[in-house]
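Design review, sub-item: ligand-bound model
Attendees: FS, YL, KQ
YL presented the inputs for the flavin-adenine dinucleotide complex:
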Amino acid sequence: MRDFDIIIIGGGCSGLSLAYQLEIKSKLQNKSLAIIDYRDKYYRDKTWSFWKVNEHDFEDCVIKSWDQFSINSKKGTLYKNCKKFPYQSIDSGLFYNKIINKLKQNKNVHFLKSKNEVNLNSSVIFNSVPEIDNASGELWQHFCGYEIEAKKEIFDDKILNLMDFNCDQKKSVHFFYTLPFTKKKALVETTWLSTMSNHEEEEYDQQLKDYIENHLNVKNYNLIYKEVGKIPLFRTSNINNKNIINIGTAGGMTRLSTGYTFLNIQDQSNYLANNLENLASRKTFKLPSKYEFLDKIFLRVLKKNPRIMPDIFYKMFKSKSDKIINFLSNKSNWGEDISIISKMPKIIFLKALFEK
Ligand SMILES: Cc1cc2nc3c(=O)[nH]c(=O)nc-3n(C[C@H](O)[C@H](O)[C@H](O)COP(=O)(O)OP(=O)(O)OC[C@H]3O[C@@H](n4cnc5c(N)ncnc54)[C@H](O)[C@@H]3O)c2cc1C
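KQ shared the predicted structure:
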């Protein structure tokens, strides 16, 4: 067993983001760091997208940025402008390469496969491996995406489609999400918000084939990349203690109502790296508690009334673009919160407020 000054367990998005911040803030000049991840190798496995509400260090990993997005429901299509906060997609393969190449230049940084190789007693430990004791009845955002290349120019690459609810909901909440990277290439995802108790929801390949061929009308295409994932829309059981600080999804960085996590991870990494020397006396970095509260109510409504959710999302997105983006990116002020909350069906939300 080897001794290190800092140990990061899980070298995914948050583990590597934190290591990167430690490196560029010169915190690893006299300190050793072990990053523990059981992966054999790093390759693109996720596409992280978000509205760019603040600067981040990964502009060079952005595949595409859009200034417009749309939402489809039975009620029609909403077209939204987001020039002030462009929607960006990051290729995780480029992100991993950038960080690992940077860290490999520092001989104080070590990549290891297992916790058994290190002495966990004497270090500052950051953990990004989620602990999930019992997820039965809990909500997940689960999805599968195909990046396809069509033979013809078929996509409008100026506008992404955030949610298309014109599909079978199977008593849950289901939508498709289309990110057109070029006129020929797009990432198309089938996304569910559910407790994952109906396994038909996981017949992703069939759903995607049908949507691509019969809805988007792309008959001739090649599948060039596939990603599958699930994001817990509940807090994991990880608990911070004297020397373990949880980060990323394990550290509560996921917005429960949306699954957006990437930019929160960047904020958390910045905070932890800036305060490395006095973390014990600093507050734990958390998402603002008003979003925890509002998201929990929102998810109670979603769980009980999946049928009305396409309508609720549609109404929410009728708000001014900046307002709704700020709200979904945890940057809204109380005025913006109230304006969005006032669009929700009052009785259903009030009932959810008093339910357990
Ligand atoms: C497919 C996918 C797409 C997503 N898209 C978006 C998006 O568009 N926008 C957004 O904001 N969020 C998105 N998210 C949510 C979130 O941003 C990601 O899940 C992000 O990767 C979370 O970072 P993390 O460090 O918490 O977890 P991870 O990135 O999963 O990192 C955890 C690491 O721990 C390692 N590990 C696990 N168990 C062990 C163990 N026992 N020992 C050693 N290592 C271990 C894993 O190999 C992994 O590298 C997405 C999630 C998924 C799954």
